[in-house]
Amino acid sequence: MKKVFSYTLVIAFFFCASNTVAQSKTAANPQRFTENTDLRKVGTSPAKIKSIDSLMQSFVDQKKVSSVVGFVAKGGNIVYKKAFGWKDIENRVPATPDDYYIKFSQTKAVTSVAFMTLVEKGLVKVDDPVSKYFPGISDQVVTAVNSDGTYETRPAARPMTFAHLLSHSSGLGAGLVGKIRQIERRKADSIRKASGAPASATVPGQRTAGTARYLKNDMEALAKYPLGFDPGSEWNYHVSTNMLGYMIERISGKPLREYIKETILTPLGMNDTDWYFEPKKLSRFVKVYNAVNGNLEPASNMYAQGTISKEQTYAEGAIGLNGPIQDYAKFCQMLLNKGTFNGKRILKAETIDQMTKINQLPEKNSGGKGFKFGLGFELYNQDKKPAPEVSNSAYAWGGLYGTEYIIDPENDLIALFYLNMPKRETLYPKFLSKAYQLFK
């Protein structure tokens, strides 16, 4: 009995000790950002801050950007949060860190995290076949397309899983599938023109004008096509996260927008981030410009305007979120904290490790040399990173209009850089190097 009793005490001691360590680590994770940081305490100086200021202002002075905003936090301490340039050039409205930006593909990471909350609830597994939840998904790979749009297929080498959707290696809409759809569009256009019907206006990530549109409709239409390659054998960007969003709807029983607001945006206090807003919010958006021959020219603001609607039925998993830089920084800090922020746990630490430490792609893929992708994020490594100072533990993804971020556990750092321009010079790596140099 003594031995058993002693053994029990030892086990209890180690359990309590390890639990205390776990609690102390959790307690060390900042649950709020610290504003007005003492720069010396985090290992930097006003002179280094001015160096970033000069770089950012140079982007504006040289008319490479209309506006730009940067955000850097180390250990939850905001070291840099400044905007430069103009929210509205014509009316001379200065840019601020509180302005709204079109995030485009930064939506994908949020959707990926939302899906993993379903995994943690035991409702689905990452390696489950998608067909288990969506029997209509294709299990065929296209091998040839005829001139009339008909095609030939073979059975896929393996079932598509949720890991394939999370890593853009599902084969959905890839390869020769594009040719099939192109032929179909030409036929549809010919029929429309012959009948005299007007073309429909669709804003990606939003609603088709004059119609009720649902993610369900788009994904069920996509599922009717074969795959462009065997799941897991290649990387093909974008549409997989839309299917992932639809799977969230099928598994949770809730619209994607509702589920993401309920599980991520509201708990983290991301109160200014959404797919759609009230009309008064339109003034919060930065206007879009193009850099053309050394000048800035007004561009279409249709994506900002498309967010304003009282009755919306459509939210994509791949794009569509919008809002200010610090809202998204909360999401980044939650990931850096291994799942917690604002006093709320979104995911377990081991789930975030699963998403951000394991490459899901074959060594050779269309992402290029050294390109690696986990479950929702690009994984940086010694062969590929946006700046030399970035550690091999860092991960990230960005958006079409120049919204970028990085989460670097080794350096306890997050950095975000926002533009609102469809065509631009590559400026982010210069900012990122300066962000890391703050602490060198």
From TrEMBL:
One of its GO terms (molecular function) is hydrolase activity. SUPFAM superfamilies: beta-lactamase/transpeptidase-like. Residues 1-22 form the signal peptide. InterPro entries: Beta-lactam-related (IPR001466), Beta-lactam/transpept-like (IPR012338), Diverse_Enzym_Activities (IPR050789). Its EC number is 3.-.-.-. Residues 52-423 form the Beta-lactamase-related domain. The keyword Nucleotidyltransferase does not apply. Keywords: Hydrolase, Signal. This is Serine hydrolase domain-containing protein.
